[in-house]
């Protein structure tokens, strides 16, 4: 079975990397979440179908509160990604679609435009995947990205996921159908370091 620690545990002892702090997303992040999405809307909209529905501070607040509820109900664990030195909000990374019986989760993530291209998502991804396959007791982590989302596919490659196939027209986003490249990593697979 999957093991989901209480949010309070990760709030008091967040996941830390060389440049990042990852803590459970909740209502205290609402304003930063809204400002970040609004400032990176054109960058995010081609790939994330929820962006057009994030229309104001209240919608960001509802998402943050729902994220806390999903964590508490062991359905998903979403983290705010913050710069370790400045505490600036950079994006969100999370484990979604918990399948407790199968010890399986899905990785999802996004980063603000001005934080891209510096390896931050790879750093956050490595930390969350290690957490998923370690303390959370996941046997399998699945991830998918649009076949033309080259930045996301590069992150997936650097994290050592194995390609499993193409899910045709898997998601409707920004008025178009996206084919998804699907990948997975098993706890028994060799993992990349560094």
TrEMBL record:
Per the record's keyword annotation, is Amino-acid biosynthesis included, yes or no?
no
* Secretion signal span: none
What keywords are annotated for this sequence in UniProt?
Transferase
Pfam families noted in UniProt = Acetyltransf_3
Span of domain N-acetyltransferase? 19-162
The terms describing its cellular component in GO are: cytoplasm
Q: Which InterPro entries match?
A: Acyl_CoA_acyltransferase, GNAT_dom, Ribosomal_N-acetyltransferase
Q: Signal as a keyword?
A: no
Recorded GO MF terms = protein N-terminal-serine acetyltransferase activity; protein-N-terminal-alanine acetyltransferase activity
> What PANTHER family has UniProt attached to this entry?
FAMILY ACETYLTRANSFERASE, PUTATIVE (AFU_ORTHOLOGUE AFUA_7G00850)-RELATED (PTHR43441:SF2), RIBOSOMAL-PROTEIN-SERINE ACETYLTRANSFERASE (PTHR43441)
Put simply, this protein is called: Ribosomal-protein-L7p-serine acetyltransferase
Organism annotation: Labilithrix luteola
